[in-house]
Amino acid sequence: MEARLEIAGLDEAIKQIAIKAVRDAIKEVIEPVLKEFKAEMVATSKDELMKKPVWTKKEIMAYTSKKSSWVNQLSKKYPDFPKKLNPDDKNTAIWDRDELLKFFARHPEIPTIEGRKNAK
Asked: Whole-model pTM?
């Protein structure tokens, strides 16, 4: 009987050590990766988009439900398309959200999540 109690106690101790090891691993490895991933996530819902003061091409794509090549054509097709805030940066172009929203309001022919919501 004593041996069983010792084994049960040992099992509980091993279980607690394993739980602590998993929690530590989550804090050290998984949480930082998740935080980094969240920081890089692109806003896709209207609420998320409206919280961001600047939009990348991916946010414009989410707002219009269009592909990257179509977004590239906006500045060529529409002379009043807002200018990039960082024209020298070739990797991550950003635009002022408010300027983009004004642009889309001037051009109702461009489909947006706003227009789709109002059409329903």
From this structure: 0.56
